[in-house]
From TrEMBL:
NDH-1 is composed of 14 different subunits. Subunits NuoA, H, J, K, L, M, N constitute the membrane sector of the complex. Pfam families: Proton_antipo_M (PF00361). It is found in: Cell membrane; Endomembrane system; Membrane. It catalyses: a quinone + NADH + 5 H(+)(in) = a quinol + NAD(+) + 4 H(+)(out). The gene is nuoN. It comes from Devosia albogilva. This is NADH-quinone oxidoreductase subunit N. Its EC number is 7.1.1.-. Belongs to the complex I subunit 2 family.
Amino acid sequence: MNSDVIDFASLAPAYPELVVAVGALVLLLLGVVINKERSTVVSLAAVVVLVLAGIVLLFVPAEGVLFNGVFINDSLARFMKVLVLGGSAFALLLALPQAEEYGTHKYEFSVLVVLSTLGMMAMVSANDLMSLYVGLELQSLAAYVLASIKRDDSRSTEAGLKYFVLGALSSGILLYGASLVYGFTGHTNLQEIVLAIAGEGRSIGLIFGVVFLLAGVAFKLSAVPFHMWTPDVYEGAPTPVTAFFAMAPKVAAMTLMIRLVIEAFEPITRDWQQIIIFLSIASMVLAAFAAIGQRSIKRLIAYSSIGHVGFALVGLSSGTQVGVEGVAIYMAIYVAMTFGLFACLLSLRTEVGPVETVDDLAGAAQTRPFSAAIMAILMFSLIGMPPLAGFFAKWHAFLAAVDAQLYLLAVIGVLASAVSAFYYLRVVKVMYFDQPVRTFQAVPAELNIIMGLSGFLIVTYYFTVGAPLANLAHTAAGSLF
């Protein structure tokens, strides 16, 4: 009897995952019992499950390695899991006001979001190539279904199919890379891989394995040139689902990238640095120029997210603790900007339905001044204008690059930011200076609250959460060095 208690207590580092896993099963039963079409109760219960997991994560700060070394819970994992849980919870809240219209009124939607979140938490705590893959696939399989949740919409089903086909390809690439790394090191555990590389040195086969492995993760991250699915899936999936894709999975994939390059491949830093620098420059430059011609708002946001992944990778390119701190801060601010942006997008609805193009936003400032003001603030923050939060996100990333003497990378980042200002400012111009062509409907109270919260955090970042966030990011990054 006592041994059972001890065994359960030894699982303390995985308590948040256990809460989410059990919660997903309970939600599934609840959805079947209540009613297939009454998802509001299930959605709210799903938010409660995610919040409860977050509370356990914060107030039961157990750290350690479990399950024969395949699972690790350290300061970095806890920091990123809070962002994952927060992003998923906000995505569920964003889906509530117009659930029927977007096809998210089915109880399966909430269950799939929770299961995908469980996969992301496993990714964040992956300490082995096998657990890395299991977490990645759990997250991805749920995401494929979420993309096509609106089954009577051809664009949604097309988005799900494209995501599935390209996702399967990326999984194959990642597995091939993992098999090469295993073949040339004899290990799948990240700590053992780094010792094997340090002892035996680099080899061409290992470098190939690293390239394929990072390419598979870069697909999940939407980094160029593995971004091809992002604009189509973002545009075709229902808007609340797109909001979910733009937040939590990015954080999980970025954490996975950090663990691989900083923990497993630290002895060959010069080799993986070249890959990360290429991904960073390609993502920033392509996103900056490709978004200029976009008229669809969701495609614009897709290219924006690709660009921001590139900016975050600038910090990681340094391979230093300051760089990892910069990435952690960047991802936290990115999640705050993204949930506010999608709240604004969902709040601006016309009599013919949700806005789909930039031109549909014409005159929004005249009839919906609060939504337009928050959206304008977020656009300036996405550019990186001081003193908004987006400026400090890029500041930390570029500072890490300069410290590592990657001056050219920092300069390219600043120039890409300048180019991206064009399409962000165009949205502000259309809202404030163009004549309205349609009437905007009333905004649900939930969205006003989310927009207000996001706007407050972005504007007052330096005076409110800036210092605490920097301290938490410093502690999180310190767990790897």
